[in-house]
Amino acid sequence: MSDDLPSCCAPSRGEASAPPPAPAERGEHRIEQVELSGGVFAMGNPNGDENAGDGETPVHQVELAPFSIDATSVTNADFARFTDATGYRTEAEIFGYSAVFHLALAAEPDEVMGPASGTPWWAGVRGADWRHPGGSRSDLDGLDEHPVVHVSWNDATAYCKWAGRRLPTEAEWEYASRGGLEGKRYPWGDELIGDDGEWRCNIWQGEFPRANTEEDGFLTTAPVHTFRPNGFGLWQTVGNVWEWCEDWFGPRYYKFSPAENPAGPSLGAARVMRGGSYLCHDSYCNRYRNAARSSNTPESSMGNAGFRTVGLTRPE
């Protein structure tokens, strides 16, 4: 695994290659759509709890054109329709390994390549891919409605081309995640846990990274319709899995980004990831918030990152 780690709990792949070719066929995208009217919203973090270097500020007004977005992350069943129709092989399958969290390992000892530098709770695992999320001894039995993981940004965009879709811009993602609530930390408000004591998202409880008490019911991924949707009808935009966005990542981008339909820097080394994952915990990674940002290289894959898509029409 690479020594150059991004500012999130997900390691980067140490080597790059030409991305797999996108299928020429056009497929059927079956995920429920949420139609959003767009408009002006305040993008960025007004709460002062951002992570240094992530570039969550300054808060700035952004105007978006109307767009449609998936109500959920793309599931294993959705991704299986894509690969069955096209024969597409993900980058994890081509490289022969992907990153697995140490408590989720389901692999032979000689398949574990060792811990990632700086994040020893991650291991490169030969045979880990979207069909084998914990390694060669795991499968997708009972996981059809869980978000697909071990997909790189390149894999996600290949699915989009097949489905006649695209990844959301970072601004579209944040607008959708906020669910109409201005300036709130989470899609439902400012309090992490409900008045009834129930968890509202799938993140880490306990002592990270050694012991997860699973108070929310999950060690790793949860089905995409778990917990409650936000005010727009989107499920689990924070927690569960990181979601790839279309933009290149720039920590200073908010200072000069356009006010209308910003699409990120024109160049970069890593793509934006949003929403945090089941591994996020205040002691290490409090990025399970509407405004939180992270990134990873487009060929990287790991067991806590997936994606959702938006309609192909692109604002001018």
General form: globular
Number of helices: 4
| Main β-sheet description | 4 strands, mixed
Helix-strand category = alpha+beta
Low-confidence runs: 1-8
Overall mean pLDDT stands at: 93
Helix content: 10-25%
Q: How far is the first residue's CA from the last residue's CA?
A: 39 Å
Assembly level: single chain
The ordered H/E elements are EEEEHHEEEHEHEEEEEEE
Strand content: 15-25%
- Number of strand elements: 15
Strand order of the largest sheet: 13-12-11-14
Question: From the alpha-carbon coordinates, what is the Rg to the nearest angstrom?
Answer: 18 Å
Explain this structure.
This protein is an alpha+beta fold and 316 residues long. The chain is built from four helices and 15 strands. The protein has helices spanning 76-86, 91-95, 153-163, 170-178; strands at residues 33-36, 39-43, 60-64, 67-70, 97-101, 112-116, 119-126, 165-166, 206-207, 211-212, 242-248, 271-274, 293-296, 305-306, 310-311. The chain has a four-stranded mixed sheet. Strands 5-7-6 form a three-stranded antiparallel sheet. The model is unreliable at 1-8 (pLDDT under 50).
Topology at a glance:
Blueprint: E1 33-36, E2 39-43, E3 60-64, E4 67-70, H1 76-86, H2 91-95, E5 97-101, E6 112-116, E7 119-126, H3 153-163, E8 165-166, H4 170-178, E9 206-207, E10 211-212, E11 242-248, E12 271-274, E13 293-296, E14 305-306, E15 310-311
Parallel strand pairs: 11-14
Antiparallel strand pairs: 1-4, 2-3, 5-7, 6-7, 8-15, 9-10, 11-12, 12-13
